[in-house]
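Q: For a teaching session next week I want to show students how multiple molecules come together into a single three-dimensional assembly. I've collected the sequence lines for a complex. Could you give me the predicted structure tokens for the whole thing so I can convert them for display?
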Amino acid sequence: MLFTTFAIVTVAGAVAAMSFRHLVHSVLSLIVAFAGLAAIYLLLGAQFVGLAQVLIYIGAVAILVVFAILLTRNTREIQRSIAVSSWRQSVAVVFAVFGVLAWAIYGSGAISHVMRPQPEVAIQQIGDALILRFALPLEIIGLLLTVALIGAVTIAMQEKKEKR
Amino acid sequence: MTQLTSCLLLSALLFAIGLAGALMRRNAILVLIGIELMLNSANLNFIAFWRYGPHPEALTGMIFVIFSIGVAAAEAAVGLALIISLYRHIRTTDIEEVNSMRG
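A: Of course. Below is the structure for the complete assembly, covering every listed component.
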């Protein structure tokens, strides 16, 4: 029951995010969708991932998107349609993808019907796994984040040298 | 309908909504938001299979989601930087007006 509520909130937030004309409204509904997903993670027993979702997606990504919207504001697009001119083909592609996914989910024999107890995971276990078993991927993701940070600053930096 | 099936259906629905946004919206920032939604639906699949799979104590699904969130954060930062750079060059974020290679 709780799952259904959060699922409806998530889907409604996502649909609203994709259909509002004003970008700031879109980001606010996107935050609703992310919060619903975080609640679903908590329901499924993944406390750490749920809290990471709140911290990273709501706290960082959504704020980053708001900054990008405020930096790229333009007044011309108010009158224009919000969809690209080839939206009919896009609708067909979207329905085809969802149809294939739903068909695969319903037709799959791999989904077991055994009810399993909620797994108990302490934060300490996740820390141990990250440091011991997944130490190399952790280092690589740190490197990736550093490179992405430097790259983003370099790309977005003002290019004033050419004008002088 | 089991809990796993409903999780997977919700994830497929989120993926379809994100795909619709990425394909149909005119603004480049909304395209990026659609891609973020698609990444989130993949994360939900990992968590659902971790929860209802045979070996939840191995933590593989959860660790994969943590790394996936990290990669998605890097992707969002670089993508938004690209959009800001694009806006500085041609004064718009409309992807239908971005049709020349010289910028």
